[in-house]
Amino acid sequence: HACSLYSASKLVGLEFLEDGFAVSPELPVEDYKFESSLVGVSKSARTYEGWYAPSQAGEWTIRIHLPKEIAGRMTKAEINGTSVALKKSEGSLQLQGRSELRQPLRWRIS
Predict the structure, then answer these.
(1) What angle do CA 73, 76, 18 make, to 5 degrees?
(2) Hey, which residues does 17 pair with through a beta bridge?
(3) pTM of the model
(4) How far apart are CA 104 and CA 87, in angstroms?
(5) pLDDT range class, residue 9, cuts 50, 70, 90
(6) CA distance 2 to 24
(7) How far is the C-alpha of 72 from the C-alpha of 84, rounded, in Å?
(8) DSSP assignment, residue 26?
């Protein structure tokens, strides 16, 4: 079972970093949902969203890698239900937010 979880995480380009994670969620399907005990990522027609639930509370950075054309259409971002500025840097969209124990960091871009 771990092999299929590993394969699915690689499909969405999931890479864990010291300060959070990076993800490349653009797959050639209209919508999908990937979830594990640590992270969730989903795509719908105009939205990408997910959550991050590390074992410790902290401030985290999420780097979302999308094709340039799609990234250019993303103008709104939310962290834990609050609108935030969407930073564009080094070919990725970046969000920063906080998680607490048993309270994951939730994010959304559209």
Answers:
(1) 100
(2) 20
(3) 0.86
(4) 21
(5) low
(6) 21
(7) 17
(8) -
